[in-house]
From TrEMBL:
Gene3D superfamilies: Periplasmic binding protein-like II. Residues 1-39 form the signal peptide. PANTHER family: ABC TRANSPORTER SUBSTRATE-BINDING PROTEIN, ALIPHATIC SULFONATES-BINDING PROTEIN-RELATED. This is NitT/TauT family transport system substrate-binding protein. Keywords: Signal. It comes from the Bacteria. The keyword Signal applies.
Length: 347
């Protein structure tokens, strides 16, 4: 490959590496730092990219937190933030910059493990069950065993994101637990929109992307892009993306917390029972460049389940403890989720 066609995101990778170094320093400091407290009636929520955050789009569009807050006699001010990658989200939560974190089950398990006896971060609810695809535009890559040093695989956050953890889970199944991180050296941190554009365009060192909907579906519009791994085939139906918070926020803001969970449950019922209206909401709130018909093709199928009940998260938790990625072994999913009748009986 000529110098002129080298990977155009390399400078971005450099900046991301610097950001990761800063994030690790922030994480280390924030583990011991006191949480910034504020009164009932305020909530700051971090979301990321993709249809998997549609429940938050519904909550925002219909002002459901405000609605349920008023039922509790409370006027709630809601602040929405968009971040990319579990590392950035975890840093924001631990530094007190946000109250509710939206990220993968992988980042939740990481921060749950590291904050026991401190901030005691736990899951609040699931955002639903969705298949995630590992994609490639390299015709030689049929399975994960075909990736080589010439390939680069985009993930939202190296090692921490749920995509990275799914890749490690697949590697352990392929080569054994001792080789669980065998493919980590090929991964790079890149937001889903950027990774999708690069994979579809081709001609760069980025030949893989562990994606999520709708980005994985948009990438597959290019006939050169194909599915290497489907997480439903790897684990079965599961909740890859969740919401979580510190124990302090939940304890200090019981009415706000209750209103948020009630709003989320109402949004899940709305989205699951009216996919057309859910699609309209997603397009209206995000401004996504996808047609309504294409969006409905993605979400109006039995594999997509909008629910606040966590599903099949424990196999990944058990795996991460087994390979030493987390130190504390959860006995069940209830160890890393707050107890709440509103989210039902998970797994």
């Amino acid at each position: 490959m000529s110098a002129g066609k080298r990977f155009p995101f390399i400078p971005r990778f450099g900046r991301l590496a610097s950001g990761i170094t800063f994030s690790l320093s922030l994480l280390a400091g924030s583990l011991a730092a006191p949480q910034a407290a504020h009164a009932e009636g305020q909530i700051r929520i971090a979301e990321q990219f993709g249809i998997v955050y549609l429940l938050l789009n519904v909550v925002r569009d219909q002002q459901l937190i405000e609605k349920h807050g008023k039922a509790e006699g409370l006027d709630i001010k809601v602040d929405w933030q968009q971040l990319s990658g579990g590392s950035a989200v975890n840093d924001a939560l631990l530094s007190g910059a946000i109250d509710i974190a939206g990220a993968g089950i992988g980042p939740l398990l990481t921060v749950w493990d590291r904050t026991q006896g401190r901030q005691n971060v736990k899951g609040v609810a699931s955002l639903g069950n969705f298949p995630y695809y590992l994609l490639s535009n390299n015709p030689k890559v049929k399975t994960i065993a075909d990736f080589t040093a010439k390939d680069r695989i985009a993930v939202p956050a190296v090692s921490v994101s749920v995509q990275s953890r799914f890749l490690q889970y697949a590697a352990a199944k392929q080569w054994g637990d001792k080789e669980f991180n065998r493919l980590d050296k090929y991964t790079v941190a890149l937001p889903h929109p950027d990774a999708t554009a690069s994979l579809k365009a081709g001609g760069t060192e980025l030949t893989g992307h562990f994606s999520n909907p709708p980005f994985q579906n948009q990438a597959l519009e290019n006939p050169d892009v194909h599915v290497v791994l489907d997480t439903y085939e790897l684990l079965g139906p599961n909740s890859p993306t969740v919401l979580y918070a510190t124990e302090k926020f939940r304890t200090d803001n019981p009415k706000t917390y209750k209103a948020f969970v009630a709003a989320l449950a109402e949004a899940a019922d709305f989205a699951q029972n009216d996919k057309g209206a859910a699609a309209d909401t997603y397009l209206r709130v995000t401004g996504a460049k996808i047609s309504r018909d294409e969006l409905l093709k993605i979400i109006d199928n039995e594999q997509f389940q909008f629910t606040v009940t966590p599903t099949n998260t424990y196999p990944l938790a058990d795996f991460l403890h087994r390979v030493g990625a987390i130190k504390n072994k959860p006995a069940s999913w209830q160890d890393y989720f707050f107890e709440d009748p509103a989210i039902g009986q998970g797994s």
